[in-house]
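ESCALATION

Customer reports they have been waiting on this structure for their group meeting. Please prioritize. Original submission:
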Amino acid sequence: MKTLVAYHKQLGDTLLLQPALAKLAWQDGGPVGLATRPGFADLVNLMPDVHWVPLRPAPAVDRLLTYDVGDRSSLVSLWVRAREKHLLIFSSFYVRFYHRWIFDQIHLRNQEQMYRAFYFWSFTPGPVQGQFEPPVLLTPPSGWLPPEVPTKPFMLVHATSAWQRKCWPASMWREAIRNVYQLTRLPVVLTGGTTEWEKRLCSEIAQGMPEVINFGGRTSLRGIMALASSAEAVFAVDGFVSHLATAFRRPCLTLFGPTNVNHWHFNAPTTCAVYPGDEPGAAKGRKITEITVAAMLDKARKWLRRINLAS
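Update from on-call: job pushed to the front of the queue and completed.
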């Protein structure tokens, strides 16, 4: 292994790093290592030519690239033995005096309105083969699927996010799911995070809806990755699961509230972004509840026809 990357952000951000890792692997002619949170190892090991790397003993590599300025990644960068160490960051505003001591080179580039995965890929130094491709993951083992999942085709709805302000209320999801079910006749597997408010939201959505199988708060990382890779289509709020759908090449409709659509959405025939107003890059002050069910369903109908799940 010639190259090690250090990155300690959330799951979705880590997944969006995959095209940059693929670029580095092509340059090296072999796998690259990723030093990130231990709980992310199953995600990392689904990335082609990428290995999750433990930090004991200290890895020794030709080059280290670090894509965030957080304390964890800075300490890892100090710990790792490398001939050259690079820090890649949005702005000099985030650079501290000790970064100049740890790293041989500090690269600065503003993301502007670029899709985050493209930003990482284009910012990564060195030659590249071909054009940018969005994140891709290997198919998870079938044993990762929760046993209660229907054997027939299903839709996945991931209704929650770590940020509560990015989530639709239960009443809006219920109305949307009821209408989408009438269009597709596909059962809905409902997922959400493990906090109490997320489990409560999923319970409220599923109550009295026989077409919904509620897994809210009951899926592991392996489980949610297997579900996203197996679904006929995915409905999600902006976050990790929408990025998973892209990486598994599953059709996905994503609801955006107070986040920049340009940064977090890959525009493709099988994807659909729903957001308030007319400007995808204007996120400040925007609320997800400004998206009406009618507006969402209008886009959903067109998208479902495009992916051949509705007539």
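Sent to customer with the following note: The mean pLDDT is 96.
Escalation resolved.
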